[in-house]
Design goal:
Chain lengths: 195, 195
């Protein structure tokens, strides 16, 4: 039991180191050797904890996909207007970006390296999330709360607009996470709403 | 003279192939061997045309930096409100993204791989551009045309919001380039303006 706990912790450390390496060098350029070095293990010992680089990528991608789908489920179940729902989802995206940047960055940029059947399983989860987000956007346009935009353009512009947080944002350096959050919410929600 | 023209054309072909490789594999993972293969040259012949992978990255980064700075110069010189100026710059960003995606993507993502003194020269150009864009945003906030946002958050949200165009957009597939442009302009300009 103690061994299992220890292994789990080591696995977690490996995943965190991998996330940083993927961010700095990219998934393709990161080798198992780099990863072993980052966690002070011999490459041969690394294989006691993980079977492959792809196992780590899989964990990162599916953990994040499920985090966003859990958030979506809560938002769908809550009472409120489409604008309130979009705002809640935006806050989830922004907080995840400011709180766990490297992980979400790997999730955003590196999922293309998943092989089958993982690739198809992952893209299905992604499509599901996007479809449910689009549905909320469309209902806001139909009710006249949002301006009449191409829903898919609005969706991708929203997702994309916070990507700079991964590269740029260091909490508390110039602005706090909540200042950044309020500013982005103001700008994007005004952009969606009918003037 | 004929030789020079031919060399220039080959150089252009090499740069275009490099741009695609950088997009698909990333700069770090792209080797001179990959590049030679992509343009049907032996690695040894490739060196007749370019001295290094970094020479290509340098060309991509500085050509794009100057393209945006030229655009900025025109916008600064034109009469118009801050909103009109921001809109003109946004259109420049969107058109460059829909018209020359791979090149701008390399410029956006891979400039960090430049070594000194190129790195510092490039970041100075980038800082200059961002500073001039911020000045226009601030003047719109001071005049009350824009809502009172943290200028740096507005700037990065604008830049970031169109990054999905590089990954996703295929002109004419679902939407035309100009439909996408009008939708993004509507959303972001409404987001900036005071309601």
């Amino acid at each position: 039991m103690a061994t299992k706990t220890k292994k789990k912790t080591k696995k977690q450390a490996i995943q965190e180191a991998a996330v940083r390496l993927f961010r700095d060098k990219g998934y393709s350029a990161t080798s198992m050797r780099d990863l072993a070095q980052a966690v002070n293990l011999k490459a041969s010992s690394l294989y006691n904890h993980i079977s492959s680089k792809e196992e780590i990528l899989k964990n990162i991608c599916f953990e994040n996909a499920h985090r966003f789908l859990e958030g979506m489920k809560k938002v769908e179940a809550m009472p409120g207007t489409p604008a309130e729902k979009v705002e809640a989802l935006l806050r989830l995206h922004i907080r995840t970006a400011t709180g766990d940047a490297a992980s979400v960055m790997a999730f955003n940029d590196e999922w293309r390296h998943l092989t089958e059947p993982l690739f198809s399983e992952f893209t299905a989860l992604r499509k599901d999330y996007e479809g449910r987000f689009l549905k909320i956007l469309k209902s806001g346009m139909q009710s006249g709360q949002f301006q009449n935009l191409e829903p898919v353009v609005a969706l991708h512009t929203i997702f994309s607009s916070i990507r700079w947080l991964y590269d740029w944002f260091q909490p508390g350096k110039e602005l706090t996470a909540s200042e950044v959050e309020e500013n982005i919410i103001n700008m994007l929600m005004e952009g969606l709403k009918k003037g």
